[in-house]
Design a protein that fits this description.
The complex is a heterodimer of chains A (244) and B (239). Chain A has 2 domains: 167 residues, P-loop containing nucleotide triphosphate hydrolases (Rossmann fold, 3-Layer(aba) Sandwich), CATH 3.40.50; 68 residues, no CATH class. Helix content of chain A is 40%, strand content 25%. Chain A has 10 helices and 9 strands. In chain A, helix 6 links the parallel strand 6 and strand 7. The longest helix of chain A has 14 residues. The radius of gyration of chain A is 18 Å and the shape is globular. Chain A starts with a strand and ends with a helix. Chain B is mostly helical and 239 residues long. Chain B has one domain. Chain B contains 13 helices and no strands. The chains are: A alpha/beta (244), B mainly alpha (239). At the A-B interface, helix 2 and helix 3 of A face helix 1 and helix 6 of B.
């Protein structure tokens, strides 16, 4: 489904991503973990085609972006960090706009629209301007827009940032359900996120993929320590020695 | 689909009151310049010369008001990341945004029709010239729009985008770039002097002397600035 091969991204002399390799299949939830500046958003932006990689390639169903960008990008539903949306539009108008972008016909739109409105509980704000929405609703509208065309791969950058505990649980339940038939890829710096989603975990540090594991294995590895301590040890090997 | 981006950009302009403000300013400035500066009632205006001779200057001031939002606001709000990850090619996005601004400017041009109808009651109009002058103004709008869109793509601050668009627009219509470029060169044919001059090319339409060179000038200049716009926006992308 998704295959990242020898991916390198450089900004001038700075290497933001250094030879990243992994693959993922439908039915998985992948949590991309890493401290701030580890390269999580850069990796996501390279997968989504927003940034051009310096080397290597990303394949979705054996296709690269260069092979057929329309097909490649149609497979992805992406919500960037901070959920940028057109504030002057009403929620319904925005979702209609997204349906137009993905060339959805009326039947397809009404079917998918009902589904996302119900799953993400946004029916009460459909006629509201996006600029007037709370952070939680804004996030939900962003996710609704990302999944409206039922993409094979759902990519969310820091999706639970700023949400209250109830909203986080609603979102997690939704992601677990969606991942049964699709691939869900989220980036976060919150360890409890990975734990609660029982997902596969990719840990990035200084642009390198330092761990490809699962939340369960991480817990085992941590033993008597907390996950935060294990994360600290992995991402700050020198600092961890000093602490010990 | 690119038409969704076109529709959104077009509607975006009408969400607030800015569209009506720009239209009102356009009508006001056009009328003041045509009636007072251009002495509309005292000249033979079978082709509405007094009205259209000031249109490039007016559009050079007003088009950046519209274009300043097209890319700079997308950058400022971060929506450019959504836009460039949609399954729509970069060139189609650039063209959709360009056409949206052109459409708004063409709507402004419609406000000249009541004056045209009124004038036609009093004068024997030169309809061929009228078509030519409308065509020329549309070409000028397209050129200035492509310049404004390019300026907007350079920054994330709409006000800077406006100032850049205004600056580039006034530079283009205010100077004869052909003569500036060839002034230091020897053995350059004299006719090249006006080739890159916005005013000379626009004047051809204004006087009804429709020629291929002027049409080519506006179309090629528009394409060049759209290409620059595409380069700036899509440099980070593969396509």
């Amino acid at each position: 489904m998704l295959e990242v091969k020898n991916l390198v991204k450089k900004f001038g002399d700075f290497t933001a991503l250094d030879n990243i390799n992994f693959s993922a299949e439908v039915g998985e939830i992948i949590t991309l973990l890493g401290p701030n500046g580890a390269g999580k958003s850069t990796l996501i932006r390279c997968i989504c085609g927003y940034l051009k990689q310096s080397n290597g390639n990303v394949y979705i169903n054996q296709n690269t972006l260069e092979d057929n960008f329309e097909k490649y990008l149609s497979e992805i539903g992406y919500m960037p960090e901070n959920t940028p949306l057109y504030g002057e539009m009403k929620v319904y108008e925005y979702l209609q706009f997204i349906a137009g972008i993905y060339k959805m016909n009326k039947d397809e739109f009404s079917k998918n629209f009902q589904l996302v409105v119900e799953k993400l509980e946004i029916s009460s704000v459909l006629k509201q301007k996006i600029s007037t929405l709370s952070k939680g609703y804004r996030r939900r509208v962003g996710i609704a827009a990302a999944i409206l065309h039922r993409p094979a791969i759902l990519i969310l950058d820091e999706p639970t940032e700023g949400l209250d505990p109830n909203q986080k649980i609603t979102l997690r339940n939704f992601l677990i359900e969606y991942s049964k038939t699709h691939l869900v890829f989220i980036s976060t710096h919150l360890l409890e996120e990975a734990e609660s989603l029982s997902s596969r975990v990719l840990i990035l540090n200084h642009g390198k993929l330092i761990k490809d594991t699962t939340a369960k294995e991480m817990k085992k590895e941590a033993r008597d320590k907390s996950l935060s301590e294990l994360f600290y040890k992995l991402t700050n090997p020198d600092g961890a020695k000093n602490v010990e | 689909m690119w038409s969704s981006i076109y529709k959104r950009d077009l509607m975006n302009f009408f969400y607030g009151s800015s569209a009506y403000f720009v239209f009102a300013v356009y009508v006001l400035i056009s009328m003041i310049l045509a009636f007072f500066w251009g002495t509309y009632f005292f000249s033979a205006n079978q082709s509405m010369y007094s009205y259209f001779s000031y249109q490039p200057q007016i559009f050079a001031i007003l088009i950046p008001v519209i274009t300043m939002r097209s890319w700079a606001e997308e950058r400022k709000n971060g929506t450019i990341e959504n836009l460039l990850t949609f399954p729509v090619s970069g060139i189609k996005i650039v063209i959709a945004k360009f056409l949206a601004v052109c459409s708004i400017s063409f709507i402004m041009l419609i406000f000249s029709i009541p004056l045209l109808i009124t004038t036609s009651f009093y004068l024997d109009m030169d309809w061929g010239n009228i078509i030519s002058v409308y065509l020329g103004t549309m070409f000028a709008i397209m050129f200035l729009t492509s310049v404004g869109c390019f300026a907007s793509s350079l920054t994330s601050l709409p006000i800077v985008a406006y100032l850049l668009g205004l600056f580039f627009g006034l530079l283009i219509i205010g100077f004869n770039w052909g003569s500036i470029i060839i002034s230091g060169m020897d053995d350059i044919p004299f006719y090249l002097n006006g080739v890159l001059d916005f005013s000379s090319n626009y004047r051809d339409f204004l006087t009804g002397q429709l020629n291929i060179a002027s049409i080519f000038y506006f179309i090629s200049a528009t394409i060049i600035f759209l290409f620059f716009n595409w380069l700036v926006i899509c440099d980070r992308r593969i396509r």
